[in-house]
Design brief:
31% helix; GNAT_dom; Aminopeptidase; 8 strands; eight-stranded mixed β-sheet
Length: 220
């Protein structure tokens, strides 16, 4: 894939998953996943989403991705194409200094990286999976692939991860990746409450990858 930003389409392929732009045939399954409170126990859910509502949301996601504002993507099983969650890049910030500013889900921004003709300085990565598929290593696989893609393809310099202050499973995931030492409390960009934040630069990520490979934990 070309490193020009924004990509015309997103497709991140891992041994078991594909992280890609959502398509209309995903709508029924994604509506169910996003409507399930069990899938987001630490955040306010989306409420009940109809298939038509999900189709509108998918169209909006893809427009924002093509504009370079963000990239909300579907996570699907590589073998079957079945959606099992959502992930992607919650924002793109062109310059240092905006990483700690809480903001709602962004709309098209004329100051986005795409409008300014450059690669983003920072992105914020998220992963949400259907709860029956938790504890199978899919979150590790999706997160590692998304971080790698952000650094190698999108040419980001800094990656931010955030979670609710009560989300112990996410904190355990960060420790399992070797990122626990990066944890700090701060204001979460998605709702303005206090949460756990992790900021990863390229050098830290390369060290993390090396350590995961040495310990047999690297999923890609």
């Amino acid at each position: 894939m070309s490193s020009s930003f924004p990509p015309s389409l997103y497709e991140i392929v891992t041994p078991r998953l594909v992280i890609r732009n959502a398509i209309p045939s995903d709508a029924k399954t994604l509506a169910r996943i996003l409507s399930s409170p069990e899938n987001m126990p630490y955040q306010r859910g989306h409420g009940s989403i109809s298939i038509d509502g999900m189709l509108r949301r998918i169209a909006n996601w893809n427009k924002m991705a093509s504009d370079g504002s963000n990239a909300f993507l579907a996570i699907v099983l590589r073998e079957t194409g079945e959606p099992i969650g959502t992930g992607g890049f919650n924002c793109f910030e062109l310059h240092p200094g905006g990483a700690d500013t809480p903001a709602p889900e962004p709309s098209v921004d004329p100051q986005s990286s795409a409008a300014s003709g450059g690669s983003p300085y920072l992105t914020d990565i998220g992963v949400m999976l259907d709860h029956p598929l938790w504890r199978r290593g899919y979150a590790t696989e999706a997160l590692c692939a998304s971080i790698d893609f952000a650094f190698t393809e999108l040419k980001c310099q800094l990656i931010r991860l955030e979670t609710d202050i009560e989300n112990e499973p996410w904190r355990a995931l960060m420790r399992s990746l070797g990122l626990g030492d990066l944890e700090e409390s701060g204001v979460a960009s998605y709702d303005g409450t206090t949460g756990w934040l992790y900021k990863i630069d390229v050098e830290t990520w390369e060290t993390t990858k090396t350590n995961m490979k040495a310990s047999g934990k690297w999923p890609l």
